[in-house]
Design brief:
Layout: E1 8-9, E2 15-18, E3 26-44, E4 47-53, E5 61-64, E6 70-71, H1 72-77, E7 80-81, E8 86-88, E9 98-99, E10 104-114, E11 120-121, E12 127-132, E13 138-139, H2 147-156, H3 167-176, H4 186-205, E14 217-219, H5 237-241, E15 252-256, H6 270-273, E16 281-285, H7 306-310, H8 314-319, E17 340-342, E18 350-351, E19 354-355, H9 378-381, H10 385-388, H11 400-404, E20 413-414, E21 423-425, E22 435-436, E23 442-443
Parallel strand pairs: 8-9
Antiparallel strand pairs: 1-8, 2-7, 2-14, 3-4, 3-5, 3-6, 3-10, 5-21, 10-12, 10-13, 11-22, 12-17, 15-16, 18-19, 20-23
The protein binds a DNA duplex (22 and 22 nucleotides) through strand 1 and helix 2.
Length: 458
DNA sequence: TCGCCTACCACCTTTGAACCGT
DNA sequence: AACGGTTCAAAGGTGGTAGGCG
């Protein structure tokens, strides 16, 4: 994933299909990106290799979906796209973009938070859940290392259309650049698409999808043509991370957009789809069995089995899983997710008069992140709470690191008249109350100190 | 010397205002 | 007056590339 000083969008963008929400309840969807391991990488011999220890983690920031807060019906209506999320390597970034280090591996995480009465989150007893899709792991770079990735992005990103050429042109450019490998042509991409579609269609048609009714969030971190990036390079560790021929219970799902539906943000309009003969179809792959180390913090102990969490029953979409008349996020008809919890009431601070509640509860301390390793006990330990009929009491525990960082200045300022900042810095210190999503005047200060929020037991 | 980063560039899409016709 | 379609310019998103820097 390219990162720049000015900020660069993720491509492919992060998209999720959400179901099981209560249609009338308001939710806030947000993303953070945490280190996937503690290594620095380099691209050598056409593959990624560990090149040392990771740089200290950057200040963690949240990207709040601009539609937040919105009703469950709104989120479930169509894919939720985080296409405007931007990544930067500028440690002093004033725009609220998510700060990353180049040549490091990262894991995006989706958080779904039930908005409180003030359309905010972080206040007393805020319920939330976190989803991690391992296939969304990426390595950040300031310039492309893998030519196949470059070509795949050029072929699929409309903004890069200017770099597309004819097949003859591709070959010419390839020769001019002295590349040993062929440039991927449009036809080749199409062929892969067709192949991919056939593969998926076969799975769908062969009854691979039994009646699962728990899944609720699916990532669509692929080109909407159905070509996952991981297709491209067998030597790419990211590609190899989650091979396509996985456990047969790992499901692929295909659904069709209704004609009258629309994306929340039409980030993938026609240009994204034009290479597909079945352009209206979106293929969503469920997450593999995976217990993210990112969730291994104390409050993540109830994390459900991601495999089950992300299975998806197409009939459920039609039936409207959220139709269940309940407002309780944790009962059987509400959202299933990696974890539900009730956030402990935070101590309240004031930052320039703006109430801000850092979304601390499920941020893993980057320094403690360990490599992704499926955990054999996760299936039991992380069963869906909804299935278990359990509503987590506040399980958030204060991180020891957090205590050590008390006293740092707040990082979240209010600037009258400033535009709405969808990005939020959760490295800030707790403030007097919950974050108000509708407050249009958040701004990030320059100079980010702590990467871990301090909070007390009040 | 090497690897990584930055600034700039040309090319392209997206967006929204202005205009026009019905 | 309201609505919908078209046009156009500005804004913004791309990867390539040369040069800087450690």
């Amino acid at each position: 994933m390219i990162i720049t000083k000015a900020g660069r969008r993720m491509f492919p963008s992060y998209k999720v299909k959400v179901s099981g929400m209560h249609p009338k309840t308001k939710y806030i969807l947000l993303i953070d990106i945490v280190p996937a391991d503690d290594h620095r990488y380099k691209f050598c011999d056409n593959k990624w290799m560990v090149a040392g220890k990771a740089e200290p983690a950057m200040p963690g920031r949240l990207y709040v979906h601009p539609d937040s807060p919105a009703t469950g019906a709104h989120w479930m209506r169509q894919l939720v796209s985080f296409q405007k999320l931007k990544l930067t390597n500028n440690h002093l970034d004033p725009f609220g973009h998510i700060i990353l280090n180049s040549m490091h591996k990262y894991q995006p995480r989706l958080h779904i938070v039930k908005a409180d009465e003030n359309n905010a989150f972080g206040s007393k007893n805020t319920a939330y859940c976190t989803h991690v899709f391992p296939e969304t792991t990426f390595i950040s770079v300031t310039s492309y290392q893998n030519h196949k990735i470059t070509q795949l992005k050029i072929e699929n990103n409309p903004f890069a259309k200017g770099f597309r050429g004819s097949e003859e042109g591709d070959l010419r450019i390839s020769r001019l650049q002295g590349k040993e490998y062929p440039v991927i042509s449009k036809n080749l991409v199409r062929q892969r698409l067709i192949s991919s579609h056939s593969h998926l269609a076969g799975k769908l048609g062969s009854g691979v999808f039994p009646g699962h009714h728990h899944p609720q969030v699916l990532s669509s971190y692929q080109y909407e043509t159905g070509v996952p990036l991981s297709n491209s390079d067998p030597q790419d560790p990211i590609s190899n991370h989650f091979p396509q021929s996985r456990d047969p219970s790992i499901l692929y799902h295909c659904f069709k957009h209704r004609d009258n539906s629309r994306h929340l943000e039409l980030g993938c309009k026609r240009p994204y789809l034009e290479t597909s003969s079945a352009s209206e179809e979106h293929y969503l792959r469920s997450a593999p069995p995976y217990e993210s180390p990112l969730l291994s913090h104390p409050y993540g102990t109830e994390a459900m089995d991601s495999r089950e969490a992300c299975m998806y029953d197409s009939m459920e979409t039609e039936a409207g899983p959220g139709a269940a008349d309940t407002d309780d996020l944790t009962n059987s008809s509400s959202i299933n997710c990696n974890m539900w919890a009730t956030m402990q009431p935070y101590p309240r601070y004031s930052v320039d008069g703006v109430p801000y509640q850092p979304f601390t509860a499920h941020f893993t301390n980057p320094a403690t992140v360990t490599p992704v390793v499926p955990h054999p006990s996760s299936a039991t330990a992380s069963r869906p709470q909804a299935e278990l009929g359990v509503y987590n009491p506040p399980t958030v525990q204060r991180a020891p690191e957090a205590r050590e960082r008390a006293g740092h200045p707040p990082l979240f300022h209010k600037k009258p008249g400033s535009p709405l900042r969808a990005h939020r810095d959760f490295s800030a210190y707790p403030t007097q109350g919950a974050i108000s999503i509708r407050d249009p005047s958040y701004q990030y200060p320059v100079g980010l100190g702590s990467t871990w929020t301090h909070w007390t037991d009040s």
